[in-house]
Amino acid sequence: MKILMVCLGNICRSPMAQGIMESKLKDFDLDDWHVDSAGTSGWHDGERPDQRAIKTSQINNVDISNQYSRKLTLDDLDEYDVIFAMDSSNYQDILGLCQKDYQKAKVHLLLNFKFPGRNMGVPDPYYDGTFGKVYDLLDEAMDDIIKRLIVM
């Protein structure tokens, strides 16, 4: 299973989601699964995650300090089995890149796996500094995501 987490700049939400998911995959003994992250904007290509995201993750024993931001590519739409958008804006941007229906079928709002049909977005902590709250929300969602993906 190959999973891609996507937010706008790939420096806050999606790196934390990647790190949390990687940590949980070890707990579930799913070593053959792969997780990566990307951004729809490419504004921060080559940069490490926001220091606040790194610190919040470290407090929770998750290391995201070696990740680098990158922009979502057309190849990603074929390479990954599941693509999680952090909010509806990113979701629409990803769908806008899709050229085939099977690619569109891979794209999901991340929190719909925890709160089905509610179309909730993961808040962006970049401006308001709510990194702890966002981390906790992502952490809670990952168990539900893994359980649902195992049966897919």
How would you describe this protein?
The chain has 152 residues and is of the alpha/beta class. It has a single domain (2-150), classed as Response regulator (Rossmann fold), CATH 3.40.50. It is 45% helix and 12% strand. The chain is built from 7 helices and 4 strands, in the order E-H-E-H-H-E-H-H-E-H-H. It has helices spanning 13-27, 51-59, 74-79, 88-97, 101-104, 125-128, 131-150, and strands spanning 2-7, 34-39, 82-85, 107-109. Strands 2-1-3-4 form a 4-stranded parallel beta sheet. The longest helix is centred in the C-terminal third of the chain and has 20 residues, at 131-150. The mean pLDDT is 95.
Strand order of the largest sheet: 2-1-3-4
Mean pLDDT: 95
**General shape:** globular
CATH class value? Alpha Beta
SSE ordering: EHEHHEHHEHH
Fraction of helical residues = 40-55%
Main sheet makeup = 4 strands, parallel
Number of helices: 7
